[in-house]
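Hi team,

Below is the intake form for Restriction endonuclease subunit R from Cellulophaga baltica 18. Please confirm the fields before the structure is written into the shared record.

FORM ID: S-0412
PROTEIN: Restriction endonuclease subunit R
ORGANISM: Cellulophaga baltica 18
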Amino acid sequence: MQVLNFPAYDFRFKNSENKVYIFDVVRKKFVVLQPEEWVRQHIVHYLITEKKYPLSLVNVEKQLKVNGMVKRYDVVIFNSDGTIKVLVECKAPEINITQNVFDQIARYNMQLQAEYLMVTNGLSHFYCEMDFQKEKYAFLRDIPEFSR
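The structure came back. Fields below:
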């Protein structure tokens, strides 16, 4: 797999039926290693290892309804009260981060109301802090570290 713009992490892999699998520490199972999954696993390890978010507050690949349609988010970090701290949208490295990608995460966030948004393809990372009062967002250099 392609080297991404993250620190190096120790991942667990296995081969089965001519496919490579990577262990997901959130879902506690091996999942097929696809380019987007490679990015997602780096994000999960980055948030847990570098940003110190507890594994218990991290959720991966769950469905949600947006305007009556079933959608899926990539990574969510919850606050201890169940509200959402960070919403992450992952794309494969060959996918450029465009306005359409931001529009997608913004639509999801209208329902989820996350404080922070992150969009990445593993090579480029974009971070935003939401201001729901003024209905806008501000770009940040990075996602804040976990704090109680």
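SUMMARY LINE: The mean pLDDT is 89.

Thanks, M.
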